[in-house]
């Protein structure tokens, strides 16, 4: 099996989503039987979308799509910034959501072409957006689930640490809950 591990937390040494994604990969590969392909979207960024990037033969899109197609499991370290995902992760999505390659348009509407994959989202959030009034501001996890489903990936598991900027005690509680969820994978 192949695990594609993506990180997009800007604060490389302090990122909650990076810590969680690393721990998820370690849990999934605890017997070292999987091949792990790692891509750091911050330290090795993909250019933002422009007209040239939409070319059918753009080399980076082909490389990213090949990595995605090869993967059985995808682990995405995705922090919430300003209610959504980092632009570095959006640039990756802009390359792998490709008509005729990862999805197709049919008479019944769009159809994803990448079924049979499992995704673990390592979600880090400074506040609490999974419930209450702030839930309407979650364009991070909801966007990722929608984009992945569009290409056929619907087996998505969220490991979330939220409220990590709300003080030491809420941060530790969030990290403990996330680590417990990882241990149960």
TrEMBL record:
It catalyses: N,N-dimethyl-1,4-phenylenediamine + anthranilate + 2 NAD(+) = 2-(4-dimethylaminophenyl)diazenylbenzoate + 2 NADH + 2 H(+); 2 a quinone + NADH + H(+) = 2 a 1,4-benzosemiquinone + NAD(+). Its EC number is 1.6.5.-, 1.7.1.17. SUPFAM superfamilies: Flavoproteins. It is an enzyme of class 1 (oxidoreductase). GO terms for molecular function: electron transfer activity; FMN binding; oxidoreductase activity, acting on NAD(P)H as acceptor; oxidoreductase activity, acting on NAD(P)H, quinone or similar compound as acceptor. Gene3D superfamilies: 3.40.50.360. Its cofactor is FMN. Belongs to the azoreductase type 1 family. This is FMN dependent NADH:quinone oxidoreductase. It comes from Pseudidiomarina taiwanensis. The lineage of its organism: Bacteria, Pseudomonadati, Pseudomonadota, Gammaproteobacteria, Alteromonadales. The gene is azoR.
């Amino acid at each position: 099996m192949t695990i594609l591990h993506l990180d997009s937390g800007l604060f490389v040494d302090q990122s909650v989503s990076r810590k969680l994604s690393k721990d998820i990969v370690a849990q999934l590969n605890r017997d070292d039987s999987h091949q792990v392909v790692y891509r750091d979207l911050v330290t090795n960024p993909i250019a933002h979308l422009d007209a040239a990037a939409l070319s059918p033969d753009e080399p980076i899109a082909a490389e990213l799509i090949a990595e995605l197609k090869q993967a059985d499991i995808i682990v995405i370290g995705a922090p919430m910034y300003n209610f959504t995902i980092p632009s570095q992760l959006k640039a990756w999505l802009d390359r792998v959501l490709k008509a005729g390659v990862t999805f197709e348009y049919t008479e019944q509407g769009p159809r994803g072409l990448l079924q049979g994959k499992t995704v673990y989202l390592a979600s880090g959030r400074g506040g609490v957006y999974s419930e209450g009034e702030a839930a309407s501001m979650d364009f991070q996890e909801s966007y990722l689930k929608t984009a992945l489903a569009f290409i056929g990936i619907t087996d998505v598991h969220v490991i979330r640490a939220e409220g990590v900027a709300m003080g030491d005690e809420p941060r530790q509680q969030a990290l403990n809950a996330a680590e417990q969820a990882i241990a149960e994978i």
